[in-house]
Structures
1.
Amino acid sequence: MTQLVSLIGAPTDIGAGAKGSRMGPEALRVADFAATLESHGLQVEDRGNLAGPANPWQPPDGGYRHLQQVVEWNRLVHEAVLAELRLGRLPILMGGDHCLGLGSISAVARHCREAGKKLRVLWLDAHADFNTNELTPSGNIHGMPVACLCGYGPKELIEIGGQVPAVNPKWIRQIGIRSVDPGEKRFVHQVGLEVFDMRYIDEMGMRHTMELALATMDDNTHLHVSFDVDFLDADIAPGVGTTVPGGPTYREAQLCMEMIADTGRLASLDVMEINPALDVRNRTAILAVDMIESLFGKSTLMRR
């Protein structure tokens, strides 16, 4: 059966510390995202861009920057992603900054509750995004979505999915992490989040990492991938707001994506934090599209 895919643009940098990720959806379109997916036999509908509040670019208030606007954007994302899932389609959220992962994943969790499915979330990122307003050095909410999903955050954000917490931390696997704030580090440990940081990948290899991250899934598991493009090494993906050196190489990242594809269970996807203002000739969006091709089964040889 042909897989039905919906592209949803969320052009905002409302939760970020640098301007520019609002242009991410257009950068992906310029990189021929839809046509590339269609070349792999997918039926793709581009639903256009969501229209939310502008970025007022204000300082933090109570440890949060732009809380009300972030809430509004995440509600829009939640409704859009949930609508596509209820139609039996695979939603791809084109960000925008990673605070929107809250709206997207809370929608996926809600859909799983409705459909009686189990959920596994792979969070591919340089950052754990597990800050709270008490721990954050910046107040930027793109550093908080995983904490909010797990029930730690302002009432308006943690309740978006209709249940608190929206997800159990045990359903999440974080991969590629290499930048965690001091207070956040203790909090991640306390909550028991499963994190495969870059040291783990260096020591054990990407294959072993992904085998563990994908273990114990069955036919009733909905697999969601939240792909922050700063997951990739900054040398190959310069167009992101918060580059951190020492990320996965091109081949390590491809293996990660290919092993996800091999499960056949990918059911929703976020592509976040592409910032064309910091990029070189759209290189990062082109690379992201290349990686997502592998998520949908591109491989060098025919594989069983």
2.
Amino acid sequence: MSRLGFGLVLVFCLTPWASPPVALALGLGLAQTLGNPFPAFTKKYTAKLLQYSVIGLGFGMNAHSAVQAGRQGILFTICSIVGTLVLGYAAGRWLKLGRHVTHLISCGTAICGGSAIAAVGPVLRAKDEEMSVALATVFVLNAIALFAFPAIGHSLNLSQQQFGLWCAIAIHDTSSVVGAAAAYGKEALEVATTIKLARALWIIPVALGTAMVFKQQGVKVKLPWFILGFVGAMLLNTYVPATHAVGPWLVQAARMGLTVTLFFIGAGLSLQAIRSVGPKPFALGVLLWVVISSASLYVILHT
């Protein structure tokens, strides 16, 4: 029965009636009722599908607009990353959490959710349970953000530019950023994706800094190659007119891929995974998220 349910939802996610928030909700519903019959499969392909989907979205974006959006968000990005890491360190000590869990959740909140945790974890030589707790914390908050942010944006009458910037700063994972921004509008999606991917490049200096602070030697830092693919696709769409014929098809395929990605993420959030977070790590995640969301929204509304 669980395999049939999984297959039916997966097929639905490939139709025009599905959307990232709906796909996430269906995945969560499946995980809490019938269960995920293919946990190894969804875990293996979630990151890859997200990366290829992000590259595909690049074929619907203009490099000139992206540079302008990135230029506006760079100072905001630097301040929010540094501020989140410092606050995370202080709050983790106050909650008496382990240094590894504190740093993983802080990096996930500051940069790009699961991708940052996956990159920093090996540098820390973090244990599997520490990685699981940090990932579960971030994914639960991502699920909330995907539904809450568009509603808040509309209630505050945020512009497309404002909402895209807020998403990129305040939502952890790239998948949820793109999903929330796509639900808000095309311009919001362009702004959010560009700033979020520029933000994701901070994985490299933060991972290197982690190796120095935690005195880890002989570790390798992985380059987030899919960001380069996104930039390449955007440049092709801007400067090579021949790509315009296939660009809309690739963007449509990317959006379908993103919808399936959110379904996979939801299906992976079992009740056991949610319970494994525990009160203290979740409290740290919520504290950081509320502070960065509120502070960034205040700045956006008053500048």
3.
Amino acid sequence: MQVEAVAGKAAEQASVSGKGPAHEAEYDLRQIDCDPNFWYPIAWSHKVRAGKVFPARYAGHPIALVRPESGPVYALEDRCAHRQVPLSKGVVEGDCIKCCYHGWAFDRGGKCVTVPYLNKEGVGRPVRSYPCREKGGLIFVFPGDPALAESVPLPEIAQVGNPEFKTRRFFPRLKCHYTFMHENLMDMNHQFLHRRQMGSITARFMGQDKGENFMEARYSFARKGGNQPLAEALIFGKHREIEGKEQPVEEIVSIRTTYPYQTLKIHDKDGDLVMDLWVAYVPLGSDQLGTQTFGLLSVKKPKWAFLLDLAWPALGLFTHRIFEEDREIVELEQKAWRELGGDHTIEVFPVVKALRALLARNGVPNARARPLEKG
């Protein structure tokens, strides 16, 4: 089979992200890791309670999130420098976290401030600390070069905090490389997969924009048969099949990957934003072949806001069913990758081909990646 090759990122970024020399080489997309020099969510804020510590992960890195009784949350490597046991099993005292084993205490910068049974300075060793921020009900860390953290902005997150929208969160874990998720959402031509949930609809490609770090595709949808689901009608408005005629464009769905995040926005025929989805795909495992999703879905409240409240459970069930169909398919793609020993995708849609190049260009070939043979 033909293996679609994708180019890696240029060498000028090698000193920061570990990219290889000016690589003209091309790599299997599923062996290209996320660039760590961005802000990645690793927990919901409400999960990290005051005076407690919470275990989280980014790729192969265990991270302990510590929230003192006062002051902001902070992030440390989740291994005590002494015997390497998880700091997340420790105790928060004041602004420090104490290891559960021998009571070594570490401050928010990772410095060991106390080895209680020796009582002198400079004995304990530090642990790694991560730049850490909170926004939109999420806790973000910067797993790359900490010197770059201040220069990299946190992402804009859906319509969290906008009283005109109602927002729900979702956080499924998937057994697949993060790139499968970007491809799945960007390619609206897969609506046949969702025929049981949405009836017979067809995506109509309306154009695209792209740049060095982003790719956006726009679609509208035409209903070819089947009843419109209630949740869909709530978001889009009532659509009916028009026998023998081309359906008018009622809304525009814009899907955008701005590396490493992805968004989906729906504007109605008047240009008003009616739905805003923001999602981050956080890699899991040293091979990054697992993904923890953090997503926020904001829906515009109708004139009578209580109607959205009444329909909220149905909307949640509808989106859950859609996502479960997507989950099954991307995990099957990952299974095929394993069984075939690499990426045998034969892509024909120009939008997805451009997206794959974007993900490769901005990612980091991992230690197992080998240049593909050309030709």
4.
Amino acid sequence: MAMSRGLRCCQRIFSWIPVVIISSVVLWSYYAYVFELCFLHHNNFFSAAAYLLVFHVCFVMFCWTYWKAIFTPPSTPCKKFHLSYSDKERYEMEERPDAQKQILIDIAKKLPIFTRAQSGAIRFCDRCQVIKPDRCHHCSVCETCILKMDHHCPWVNNCVGFSNYKFFLLFLSYSMLYCVFIAATVFQYFLKFWVGELSNGHAKFHVLFLLFVALMFFVSLMFLFGYHCWLVAKNRSTLEAFSAPVFQNGPDRNGFNVGIRKNLLQVFGEDRRLWFFPVFTSQGDGHYFPLRTLCEYQNPLLASEGRWAEDGGSDEDSTGERDVISAEKEQHVLSSA
């Protein structure tokens, strides 16, 4: 027991190594660009001031988005998707797999769940004891189920999912902007050092490494950012791109694709003034997503807060909610047929 705790503690410590590496490279780049380049080897005051202004804007936005991607807790299923004490007891006491499957089906009738396991059964996490909402997956690193899980990223030491996917995309975009700006403004000094117009001191090595590191990170980030832009346009997560979500009528990679504009709004929200700032503006609550076959029937995101309020409503309201969910599921089956 003590050994396992020690191993978990070491694992948590080592998981921060990639974050420390990125942070160290960024801090070094700040010193090299601001002090070694702009303060010591830039002769034009106004040009240096303009460079420093733009550099600090890029630096602040990069740090802000990186911080939000790291320290925003991943969203987990609400208590509506957890088995009640009686349902859990009934499920655990039942030994027949078919009967357990039917118990989960009966419980899921009250929930907005459209996806299934590969076997066609209700997706259930034995470790978290929770019926998985659509697009929810269990992360073995975080040891919990994550809403709209995309992947576990070691470079932010966090799960990228519903709560921080926008922050992760902004982190990639501002990282690219940061690298492009450094490479573009450092290139002229690289040429001057190369032809011997500037002194051959230790600043030369800072300039050389600044250009090399900026270009190297930009190339790698460009492919990753382009891939995630494609995922957003298709309304897929990384996991869904590798394994298509399964619905009642079978696997469908485009099951959640409701058009590029609506897909974009799901991640960034309707207020375009906030798209480029790391503040949470994503639509919905992560438990329920519009389906391609239902996008013209109803927009469930608008009513998600009222439907899944923790306080709940009267029995009559709950019955009405179940009727709405059943009607949506029937419509989905009819549309898919």
